[in-house]
Structure formats: C-alpha cells, structure tokens
Design goal:
Largest sheet of chain C: 5 strands, mixed
Helix content of chain C: 40-55%
Strand order of the largest sheet of chain A: 15-12-14-13-17-18-16-19
Structural class of chain C: alpha/beta
Structural class of chain A: alpha+beta
Chains: A alpha+beta, B alpha+beta, C alpha/beta
Number of domains of chain C: 4
Largest sheet of chain A: 8 strands, antiparallel
CATH topology of the largest domain in chain A: Uridine Diphospho-n-acetylenolpyruvylglucosamine Reductase, domain 3
Number of helices of chain C: 25
Helix content of chain A: 25-40%
CATH topology of the largest domain in chain C: Glutathione S-transferase Yfyf (Class Pi), Chain A, domain 2
Oligomer: heterotrimer
Shape of chain C: globular
Radius of gyration of chain C: 22 Å
Chain lengths: 457, 481, 439
Amino acid sequence: MSALAETGSPARELSAIVGEQNVAASDSSVAINGAFPALTVFPGSAEEVAAVLAFANTRGLVVAPAGGFTKQDIGGIPEQVDILLRTERLGGIQKYDPGDLTVSVSAGTPFAEVQRTLGEHHQWLPYDAANLERATVGGCVATAASGPLRHAFGGLRDFCIGVQFATADGKMGKGGGMVVKNVAGYDLMKLMTGSYGTLAVITRANFKVFPRPRQTRTFLCNFASLDETLRFRAKILASPLQPICLEILSPRTQDYLNDPQPARDPDDYAPAQPVSLASKIWQIALRATGSDTILARYKRELAGDASRELDGAAEEQFWRRISQFEYTILTRHQNAMVLYTHLPISGVGTVAQAVERIASDYNFIPAVLGRAATGNLIAAFMPLSVDPPSAMQYANCVSAFRGLLPTGAAAEVAHCPKEAKPHFDVWGTTPTDITMMKAVKKAIDPNNILNRGRFIV
Amino acid sequence: MEASVLRQLKKIAGNGAVLDRPEELMMYEYDAGVDKSRPGAVVFAQNTRQVSEIMRLAWQKKIPVVPRGAGTGLSGGAIARKEAIVLSLARMNKILEIDVANQRAVVQPGVVNLEVSNATAKYGYFYAPDPSSQKACTIGGNVSENSGGPHTLALGVTVNHVTGLEVVLPEGRVIRLGGKAQDSTGLDLTGFFVGSEGTMGVVTEITVKLTRLPEHVTTLLGIYNTIEDAANTVVAITQSGITPAALEMLDGWMVRCVEANVHAGYPEDAAAVLLIELEGMREAVEEQAEAVSAVCMQQKAREVRRARDEKQRQLLWLGRKTAFGAVGRVSPSYYTQDGVIPRTKVPYTLAEIERISKHYGLIIGNVFHAGDGNLHPLILFDARDPVQKENSKKAAKEIMACCLNFGGSITGEHGVGMEKMNLMPAMFTEDDLEIMVRLRNAFNPESILNPQKMIPDLRYCREITGPLPKAKVEPAPGVRV
Amino acid sequence: MSSAGAFEPHVHIPDLKPVTPDDRPTWELLSTCVHCGLCLNHCPTYKTLGMEMDSPRGRIYQILQVNEGQMEMGEAFVTHIDRCLGCVACETACPSGVKYGRIVERARSQIEQKYPRPWLQKKLRDLFYRRVIPNFGTLSFVARLARFYQRSGLQTLARKTGITKLLGMSNVEALAPQIDSEFFFSEIGKTFPALGERRGKVAFLAGCINNVAFSHLNRATINVLTQNGIEVHVPAGQGCCGALHAHAGYRKEARELARNNIRVFLSGDYDAIITNAAGCGSNMKEYDDLLEHDPEYLEQARKFAAKTKDVTEYLAGMGVRAPKKRINRKVAYQDPCHLANAQRIKSQPRELLSAIGCELVELPHQDQCCGSAGVYNVSQNELSMKILDAKMDDVQSVSSDIVATANVGCMIQLRAGMQQRGMNTPVRHVMELMEEAYS
C-alpha cells in the first residue's frame, strides 16, 4: 500500500471530482503485472477524466487507464501505478446514424454492445478481436487489438474516423470527426490507436461502419507441410478470390479450437515423446462472403484443397474460437508465452517455422495462428509441465526466436509470466524511430504520468 | 536570400540545382489552388543526404523550408510563406523497388502517382489511391496531403496504403517510420505522419502497399432528370449494403462542361449523372451491377447505362477526372471547395448550394465523391468583376458553413494548407489545436518546416473565429428527408 | 470571419488588350489555363529538367507575366521558351483545352520581334528561315554543298582528324540526313496516274528537306497512293509549308508561305492535300489560325486546313487494297508528336501497318517526343539527346524487328539513337514499309 490511501487526501480530492461512490481502494483483482494501484476511480464524463488527470499531473501520480481489464497484462511491469482510471461509466452509443454508416461510442462501452446495436440494422464493425463481451471500445483502440477480419478490412486504425481524449495535463482534445473522409488537422486517430494509454485517455471514438455480410462460408484446407500451405496461400493471393479471412493454423493450434476439454495430462508432453506427435497437419481457414453463386465459385476453385466447409452456428463458433485462441491457451497453460509478430508477408513461412524450431529447443510446445496475408501472427509457447522453464529460459527463447526473424520483422511479447519479464525486452525492436516516439510522448505527457514504464515509450 | 546561403545550397545540391533569380522564383509562387507567395530560393534535392544537409543548413540559419512535389495541390501546402526555401523533390523520382512477394513498392517522393500503377500492372497489381491529378502529382505530395480520389470509397485513402517512410527532420536527422510490415511495434507514427502537410518532416522514401488488380470492373452511368433524385440515390445505395469502388456525381452543368471537352458520353440534357464503379470477382460485380441499377431506377433515374467495353469505361472516367480543368474552358476563374458532409445530407446540401448559387447569381458546378460525402462545388466567377469576386467569397463561406452545420469537415482530401487555415477554429477548439501544435513541435520545434500552414497561430484564433453564417437546414421542395 | 484570408482568391487580372495583329498571345488563349499542373508529367523537358520553368504550365505563366509587363523578355524567358519542343503532348493531357501550341508560337513570334538575340545566332536563324528553306533554289544549292561534304571524303576526314569533335559538332553532325543523289525537285509539277480503278485525286506536298534528303520517301508515298488507286498531283509552284517558321516564331514568313500554298493547292480540284510529314500536316491544318487576321485569305485557309490530310489518315480513312506481300515483322510504331498529339492521329498508321501484315508492338510513354522536334535536335542538342535517351530506353524495353514512324524528323533522330546505342534495328517510315508491301 502506498502512502496515497493512508493520508486520504488524494482520495478526497478525487471524490470531489467524480463523487465519493466512484473512488475506491483497489483490490488484488486489478493488479497489473503484480503492481497494485492504490485507488480506483470511475469518472462519469470526459470532463471528469480530464479533471482526474489534471489532478494526477499536478501531484505526479501515475495513472493507468483501464476498460474491461482484458489486456492489462500486456507490456512491461509498471514502475508505479497510483490511480487506476476505469472507463466503465463512460458507456453508451452516443450517436448512430445507420444511413450515414457512422457511429460514435463512449470509450467504456463493451465492443460487443456496439456490434449488437449495429446488428439491428444489418451493419457491423468488421472487427473480431478477443473478449469483446468485456473488452471496451477505448481499450480496443488503445491496444490496436485485432482479429481474423483484419485480413480484408484492416485494423481499427483503418475505420476509426474520430477520437476524443483527455491529455495528461487535463485538456480535452479531439481529432477527426463524424465523416468518412477528412483531412482537417493531424490524424490523431492513428496516433491514439495502439498507444496503450500512454498518450492520453481515450473518451470516445467514432467509426465508419459497414453493411454486415448476408452470409459467409468457411473452407478449411489441410496440408501435410508448411511449404504446401504457403503455396496455397500464394495461389489464393494471386487469384481473383477475395476472402474476408485467411488464417494459417499450425498443427498444434487445432487442439485449442476444439471443444473445451480438461487440460491434457502433462505426461502427454513428456520429453521422451517429441512434441510433433499429435499432428503434422497445417491448415488454412478461408472465410468467404457473397451470394450463393459466389460461394459456389469458391467451392469450385477450392475443390482440390478444401477438406471441410463450415457454415451457420458451427462457423460462428469456429471463428469465435480463432479470435479467442491466445486466451484459450492462457486459460489452459497459465505460464504460456504469447508473441505478436509484425512481418512482411513473405516472412510468414520463415517465422512459423522458427516458432516450431525454437520451441523444441527451449522445451516449449509451439502453436501458431494468424493472418496469413498480413503478417500478424500469434505465436504461442506452452511450457512443458514436467520440466517448467526458468525465467531465463523464456528470455533465451525470445531472444533466439527474434534472432531467426527475417529482415523487417519484429515480435513483441504480449503475454508471459510476470516473473520472466524483467529478463528481456517485452516490446523488442521496431523499425520506427524510438527517439521520435519518445518526443511525441513527451510533447503530450511531459511528466510521464500515463502508464509509466509499461509501453515502449 | 543571403548569398552565403545560396552558395552553400549550391555546394550541397550542385549549381544547376538552385534557383535564385526573380524570374525563376516566380515560377514557384503558385500551385493548382488560389494562393500565391514567392519563395526566397528553390533547391532541387537528388537524394536523402542532400535533403538532410539542406535541412541542417536551414536549421542553423533558421530559414524556413517548404517541401514541394509537382505543385498540383489545391490548398497552398507547397507554397512558401516567409520567403522560405522551396525544397523540390521532383528530381527524386525513382521507383526503388517493386517487391511483389510482399505486395509493396518502395519509391522516392518525386515519383508520379500513376507511374507506380503503370510499373506494377505487369505483376497484376496497382497503387490504389487515385487523386484526379494522378498523372502529375507525386507520391510524396500524396503522403503529405493524405490524398484521396474516386476509388478511395472502397479502398481507402493514402494513409491506408502507406506502411513505411523515411523522413528527414528539420534538424537534418534522418529517421525511419514503419517498414514493409503491415504494422509495427510502438506508436503508429507512420499513420500520424501521413497528412501532416509538410509540417513535420521531409519525406524522402515511401513504402506503399500494392493492391491486386480486380478480376472484373464495370462502370454504370445513372442519368437523372433532377439533381434531388441523384442525391437520393447516393443515400439509397449506401444504405443498400453495397460499397461501390467509386460513386461519383456530376450535376448537369458540369456534364455539359465535360462533354464540351472530352465527349465522355454523358447525356447533355441530364440534370445530374452518377458514375458508379463496381469491381471484384466477376459474379459479385454482375450481381452488384444489377442491384445498383435497380436502386437507381427506384430513385427515378431516367436511365442506367453500362460501359460496353474498356474503352467506353475509360472515356466515362476521363470525363470525371478532367472535370476541374474542363471548367477552365468556360470560366476564367473558379474557386474549388472541398467540404465533407454525412452522406445522408447530400440532398439537403445540394439544395442549399443551389439556393446559394441563385442568391449570388453565380454558377456553382458540382462534381464530387458522392459516396463518401466529399463535395467539390466549383464557384465560377470572373476575377475582373469585383462584385462577382466578392460574392464568390461569400458563397464559399456559406457552403462551408452548411457543411459544418451538418457535422462535416472543411476538407476531405485537398488539405488545410494556407487556404483553409483560418477555418480550423470553426472545427476545432483552442485546446484541440494546442495539442496538435505540441505534437507538431515534437517533430518541428521551431516551425522551420512549412511555417504558417494548417494550424493558425493560436493567439489569433479567437479573433478570426467569427460566427459563420447560419445555413438553412430545411430541405428544399422535392428533397426526401 | 473578419479576416477573409482563407477566401481570398488571388487571381491576377491581366489588362484586356485588344486582339493584336502582331501575334501577341491573347488573354482568351492564356486564361484557359487554370494551372492545375496535369500537363507536367507529359512534358519531355519537365521530365528531363524537373523545373517548373520548363513545363507547359510554367511557360504559360511566364508568357502571361511578360504579356502583362510583370517580367522582362530577357534571356531567362527566351531560354525556357526556346527549350519547348512544341510536341504539344501537354495538349493531350490538358483538361481545359488550352491551345498551348498556339500560345508558344505566338510567344516565339514576340521574341523574334522584340528580343535581340546574339548577332551570330540572329544571322544564322535569319539565313536558315528566310533564305534557305523557303527558296528551293538556295535549298538545292546548300544540299549540293552538303552532299559534296558527305561524299568527297571531307566528312570522313573531318571526323577522323577530330575537327568535328573539336568544334563540338559531332552530336549535331551525326544528325544531318544523308543527302540524296537525286533530288525530288524534278518531280514537282508532275502527275502520277492511279493504278487500277481510280478512287481519288489528291495533291501532294513535297516538303522542303524531303526534296533533298528523303526523295525516296516521297517517291514511296506516291507509289503507295497510286497502287491504291489514287491519282497524285505534285502541283508546280508549291513551297515549304512554313511549319519550321511558325514554330520558331517567324510567323510573318510562315504566313507568306501559307498564302503561296493556298493559291497553288486550291487552284486544282483535289479531294485532299496530302503530306507525309507530321510537322507539315499539323501546320497546314492550322493555316486558319496563322491567317486569322487576313480577311482576304481566312476563308480559303479554312478550306485548305480542312482538305489537308496526313497520308496515313487519308489511306486508313478510305481503306487500303490488299498488299502484294505481307511484311511479317514485329514493328514498334513510334508516334510522331505532330501526328499523335497535334493531329490526334494514332490509330490510322497502326491500322495501315496491321493491314500489311506487321505485328505491332506498343512502346511505353507513347505521347513522349523523341527529341527531334523540327530543328530542336540541332538548336537544343544537349537536351534533345537526353530526351532521346529516355525514348531509346523505351525502344529497348520492347523487342521489335523494326521501329516505324511517320515523320522524317523522328526517323533521323531515332536513327541517331540507334547508332549511339550500337543497335541496328532499322527505322522506317510507314510509307516505306507499305511500298515494300505493294511492290
């Protein structure tokens, strides 16, 4: 416990801003990589967010913004967290005009709620990251999380048309607006997307929405080797087909897309029985949309490759599980390590292979899943239960894996046991100039009160 | 410009790469828009090293620098205020790499937009953003302005197609933002930089995405007897769930203007036409073409024609792409607007523009990206007539007010630059603008680069934010709500 | 909005000068340019030099400034106007329909009237435009001199001893056409009867340089026409068309030549007036512009312009007879600017080549000039060679057996390009290939 709660003064002052009932002492359920914020505040408006930040800024208190608390484990161990700023009272769809295909949502709204509202008008945001029942709009924008639909529709950055936020010194700012094309002012939507709450607290975001596909179908294509899988990918990319998802699944991945089952008997993974025992089948899942005629064409063109077709509820479930993949792993293997890769797309094969190789070198079980044609892969390393790895082993594994990445590629460690984090750089390298990133951060949060020590800047 | 500065510029870039005679500088005082301002010198850089050395020199001497591509911008972004040095990147015009395997091209900033598509067509790819000036404008300029174009409706604007940049900062430091990967760890400075109008750094290399050429493309021409029907069709198509590759509108006056120029095949007696392009898989295009035609007919189109072949399709587009220039045949001067409105407000806004046109007795032609609500009313006037000139300004102001009252924007793709700088306070609060200035200063702390552009001096904000005229929001007769 | 800066259209207003008979570019011509810049990348000099002054938009702006007295008609202005090839590729790109060719010709006329060129340059230009070209007697004499130089061994001597190089003339000298042993002057005044059924009756303009250096091309053209049932007259008294003069700013001289040709060619009852030189054709089609202030001739000039046809345009328009043999070769056709850009004749030569069995290969950047542009390759040799370089890159980027074109200037330039690159792809006029097919 920091001195904060004991003296009572910050709590009192925060109460004056947001109301007494909206300030609470934190409990262990909101630990961020082991760090406990002393106080949790629940501001009810953008103005209150700004006021909380202004207060924290003058006192030099470190603030961690939080939405649905689904991704707080991502990133480094915080140097200090004094105030946890929850956005759950900033809820609700503020403006939705189905005719204009635009929507404006307060940051604390769970993403699934937005989708349900849009769904009433047969519209959607083509967005399917994990945990959307809990994950909030603000959190999704801040972490730039994405799902399989990224293949055809891009990330949130590509359809976020406006953003409102409060800066560290308590100013309310905005970028963009409610129109789908707009170049007035700097593109703060791009800057805020993926800034992990280090620049400002997002209070509201506007999106352009899309008509929801009337029907979709999923084709599962199995291949005996990675090479064959990549050849198939090349064929699809060169074809006129325009799937909305194109996922690559490594052999082990399929285990995590089945019905939930009790965790495997650890002995299954005894070192005596090498990890490749289960399956050698690589898979590509291709999701198509269109009329019956169009789906018939997919069926025709994929005739030699697709081994299974999914539609209806089974299809929905399949894709939900794909989206949930890394969290399924984390549920089953508490000490698993998950990395996100950023690759030029020709590197997908090399990287998938590297995961398999490095994992066996460091006593992990590998699973890879991701966007085969955008280079956003999720690489999971599950520890062998019989021989749990040391913290250093995680570090060595990450460094060996990064060593095998092709030019222009990078990998950040999204999830891993917090004990391992001090032993390596969670974020890794980036092609983007880090000095410039720091200058941007400094320009907008000079006292570094937002998420100090957790992000790359 | 000081002689010693000129000497050093010549030392850096070569004797033939520096202009300082008044008759030469005069040639860099304009772009394709309305503003003019003469630079103190012009220097042509040939590589990143030279750009860096030029910036370092300017930084030391505190001389402002304005980067420039082809000078086809419409908002004065590449015009030098304060006798700045114009840094022309027109000679850095090489396509450095076409990386088909990664669906990327790496180009220098002076490469002409269309050249990228021309160079990649043989691999089955193209560069998607297609501003109307694409045969002349440069990728560097596109990055600075975050340029759009007709086909950005489905495919997105420049920022959606740039993954990596090499940038020279004002003090001469060369930095990289992003690369060939779709995204990268850390802040998305690549996305943030695009559209910064030359106020953050000089782009010296760009990695762009290449898009697969569609299997099938078809273009429909919806012909209307009233402008309201055409506007209502735009709303109806958007709501029908089809996103055309492009959805453009020309009013009757523009149609006749364009026909006089290129004989694109638009009927001259129409009150408005819609140019609708559909692309993708053959089956999808066919289905959408039928669906769109049906919507057009429901909305009282007189007729829907479909381009018979590629030649006719190109001709229909030629008409659209040359529309601005075609106005030059008719009127010695025109003033292009670039307002954006929510798509459902297209009918009201057009009715309002018509009212404004009648009120001031000025012809206002409309040719615009209807699909994303990006209007380009062209106010025609004769600059030799002071009354007309004055009225054109008033009309422009009323149109802008109308866009803003509908929750729109002052610019959809032409940029703020010099031209719309003083309108920024009508869209953004002082705090919004101050945050933007702070962010800009992180890159360009002393405003050496492109000073007095995009964001007005905050001290004057309050003085220039007079009230905009109140726009009429009641729909005109015949406009469906 | 008290300060209306954002809405201040800074359009400069030139004074409305009356339409002048001294060939001033008029406000009507200049004001069509909205400086959108779409022309830039179509201009070979802008592409090569990358400077606004050497772009069509920039030149129009300079002309406007000079016209208004905002800029002096000095060395800089003359340099940039001189550098224009007159290829009018910009006109094909211009959405506003700016008549750039007319503007720049008028600007050049102003320069010739008002700007004091260096003494030697002035004398040489006058000699060339006023004495040699318009006067077939003098032209014949000069050609004989040149032929003597080429054949007597003097040329070889000059080249071997390095005198040409010493004088900085090697590039230019390489561009001189090979003078014919038999000039075409002897054919002027003759009539060539149609073979087979007569399908038309035309008058043929023999040109100037063609008479002394491309007489075989003129004969080939007549041959192809007669083989296709056309009766060809080469009216006596005809002279140079005046294209070189008009492009160089010698509009007074150009008008004299135009009037003479109008008198000669309209005196007979011809279906068309035929030329095989793109530059001549485009100029002849503009006689009405040249003589717009000459009420006596204007009506006839319009008639003359309407009757003028490029030989490819005429033949393709009426359809050709089946050739005697097919030329089964891969041919890359290089569009002459004054045919493709100025007269918008692009498909016709291609149709003719296809008709004789050639397989067409399309070059990239078809609207781009080869750098020949009349006498440009001599007067602006260095720049011309750079432009040629870009063209040769395009030529090398495709594989073809033959490069065909439809203008002698382009032929000379492309041949020089081939020589520079050590290529031996033949450069032929469409009419030469057709003659081969019909003989």
